[in-house]
Each structure stands twice: as structure tokens, then as C-alpha cells.
Amino acid sequence: MKKIVASAMAITMGLSLVSCGSEKPDTNNAPTSSQKKTVGISMPAQELERWNNDGEYLKSQFEAAGYDVELVYAGNNSSRQNNDIMGMIADNVDLLLIAAVDGTTLSTTLEDAKNKNISVVSYDRLIMNTDAITYYVSYDNYLVGKLQAQFLRDQLSLETTAGPYNIEFVAGDAGDNNAKYFFNGAYETLKDYIEAGKLVVPSGMTTFERVATPDWAVDEAEKNMKTTLKSCYADGETLDAVICANDSTALGVTKAIASNYTGEKYPIIIGQDGDIENLKNIVDGKQAMTVYKNVNDEATVAFEVCKRVLQGEVPTGKLTSEFAVPVNFDSETYENGVKHVQSYLLVPEVVTKDNLQLMVNTGLYKWDDDNKYLELVK
Ligand code: BGC
User: Is 170 exposed, middle or buried (0-12, 13-18, 19+ CB in 10 A)?
Assistant: First the structure.
């Protein structure tokens, strides 16, 4: 059986989705104009590289399959997102695909969707406190943090050396359910080393609440790291590593290090996403690694799940075998306060300066003219 692959070209060259390995748009089940259905896509923010990519790619896939699409970005503002979604419900969309700004603020609005029989699929971030959502499509968020911590463990040879090494944590936005998974994945993997004194957290900030970064903002992460540097590292103390929940926070930390760090050893800075600026920092040795999530693969899985829901099917674990990339079906891990949400979880990868070619191989990135940095294929 041919596997479903993400098409790198669909977004970059305006071509249609190549699905199931065919060379033409997958229009087999495309609705005719009289029964054309509409998909409402709500993304958190256009400003962040990844959401822009997710939104455009999803739109291109649905349109190529014959659906109408309403795509909106919420500017990282949860009230705006609520209004956007209310508007799409009023427009009688057939399905809502939502990456929530704040997963805790949508339950009332989604009650209306449920009453109108509009299917809701939660994208990347789990929507909390509602039974209106039927599926959740994301990367394995806990594994993201775990991979970050395992990378650090290996870099510092924590199994074989005594340390102690100084480390700090920087988490994501507290309203984003993912952020806790990233933090817990990293913290729980390193906990034994912290308890054994091999790793020390000089700031004492070892809980998610204390290291959360509002809006995942670069500026906030920079400001917080400057404060930490000032209070704990002002006399040239070594900061060995910073685990940052994603690349925007890693960027803020890197800026703070550049301006306010006086230690001799440059810290191991770890992020997530594979944003262009961070990939440049990886080449330049300013960031050690990023956990890469190919958002076209994530969008492709979401698209396939939504397509089946729109066709009246009930996707199950069987669907996972149809994808060219590993996807796990999980009905236990993600509990949203009301129910365990059936989840399709993709598997993230570690990217360092040694395997940047892996990103080029996705077709989404290319080397620049000097073969030094990566750029987006656009
Ligand atoms: C996503 C990350 C992203 C972060 C900030 C998280 O929910 O999973 O990929 O970096 O939001 O937008």
C-alpha cells in the first residue's frame, strides 16, 4: 500500500497536495460544488514561523481536495481567537481545526459548535475542558522534552562524570497545554541527576510555573534570562546549559547570553522547532540543538483525520499505518479535564549542526548560496 506523505512542494510552489503517493491532487473523494464543505482553521499567531507554515500548508491541502477554507490567525490573543471561532460557527463551517492560543478559554464557544454538529479537531495544542473535540493531532510533546534532556545528559556525560554542572530551565506559555509536557519531559528525565547534585539549578527555579514564558515571547525569555544571569551568574560563574521549551525562547536566551553572560564556557542552549534564525545559531555554535517537528507532516496527518471525519468516517488507530512517517494512536495520555482525547502523535527528531542535511531532505529547507546556512524553500 502506498503511504501518505507530506508534499514539500504544495506550499512552496503552489502545487496541489500529493497524497497517497499519486502525482495528481487527491480529488477521488473531492466534494462536488453543490456539496462543497468548508473547513475553518484557527491558528494562534502568524508572527511565529511555524504557525504561518502550518496554516498555509493546511489551507493548500484542503483546497486541493476540493474544500473551501476559512483561515484565521489570532495574533496570540485568546479573545480574538474566540471571536474568530464564533464567526466561523456562525458561518456554518463543517469542521473546525484549531491550534489554541490558550487551551482553557474555548469551552463555551465550542459548546455552540457541538450544538450545531460542527466537528472540532484540536491541532498541536490540546483544547481543555470540553467534550466538543473528537481528535487531537500533535507531536509527542513529552518526548520533545525528553529528547532535549537526553541530549544534555549525553553532552555532559552525566552517567560517567560527577559534575556538578549549572543548568537553567525556560518553559513556554502557561496557557498552552503543550508547555507543561515539554517541561515535564525534560525535568523528569533530569530529576535524578538534580537530586544527586550532578546538576545544579542556581536560580532555584525548578517548577513549570516559575520558568513559564508569557506568549512564548523572545523578549520575555531574554528579560527573564538577564534577571537570572544578574542574580546568579554575575561574578563569572559558569552556566553550563539552558533547556528552552522552543526556539523563540531559545532565541531570547541566546540574546541575553550575548549581552549579559560573563562566564568563560559558553552554555549548551537547547530549543525546539527548527526556526531559521535558530538554525543559523546552530551553525554558528550559539545554540547546540533543536528538536525538529516537520509541520508539513503534522498538517498532513491532521488533514487526513479531518478529511475522514468530513466524509462521515470514524478514524481509528488503523489510520496510522497509512502514513509514511511514524504516527502513534494514543487514547490515554491526553486528558483534557473532561475526557481522554483520541490522539495522533508524531515523533520529533533531534537536529544539531551535524545533521542539518536532514532538514534539507524534507524539501522545506535548502542551503544558501555559500552552503553555510539553511533557508526556507519559498
Ligand atoms: C508548539 C511549538 C511552538 C510553541 C510556540 C507550542 O504549542 O508545539 O512548536 O514553538 O507552541 O508557538
Answer: buried
